[in-house]
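Quick bug: Derlin output formatted oddly.
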Amino acid sequence: MSDIGDWFRSVPLITRYWFAASIAVPFIGKLGLIDFRNLMLFPELVFSRFQLWRPVTATLYFPITPNTGFLYLVNLYFLYHYSTRLETGAFDGRPADYVFMLLFNWICIVITGLLMDMRLLMIPMIMSVLYVWAQFNKETIVSFWFGTQFKAHYLPWVILVFNFIIGGSFVNELTGNLVGHLYFFLMFKYPLDLGGRCFLSTPEFLYRYFPNTRGGVSGFGVPPTRRPVPQEPAAGGGRGRYNWGQGFRLGGE
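Here's what came back:
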């Protein structure tokens, strides 16, 4: 148990709490401590009965059944893996900026979920984070199932097509990808590469609650002279290679 505790404490702070909540809330529903229907997003109940907790619980809840258990574990792994990579990579030392990204993505996903009558928001939220990671590491070579390899830039769309083939739906993945793209475009692509106006900036109050742990200018509100493109360390020994496929062996990290 001490090994598990040590591993859990080694997970970056924001990812740690998100990961823990994404385990606790589904099991609360699974064990019947709270009716699982009270954890899902029903727009009419949010607006007419002011059940304002639903957008939050719908982001953390996922039904655990024999048919959905594997999908839940895979997405839980995606959450841990790519959120950790972002928090310790592109957002290293800048927790306020990372919290702002999560809040922006979450608000966009909640609005989309309310408009499209979506019940669960866990997969779109995780995919939005995965998409942002892929944009920061677009030249990194990743490995998918059956030994296929491609640039990380294509990973969110490969997962979308793969889940559509095995599950017959891609709405959750597409929503997450589009929201992740919107954040990355407004925060980085448009102001830094295209010279446009900076529409997004981390609010100052977040820096009071999540101060930077390194020196330098706070946040991404003011575009730097060139866009930083952090690179992931190689996982398999080869330069620039990242073995995504091994990630499905949960607990092997």
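Actually, after a second look the formatting is fine. Confidence is low (pLDDT under 50) at residues 216-253. Closing.
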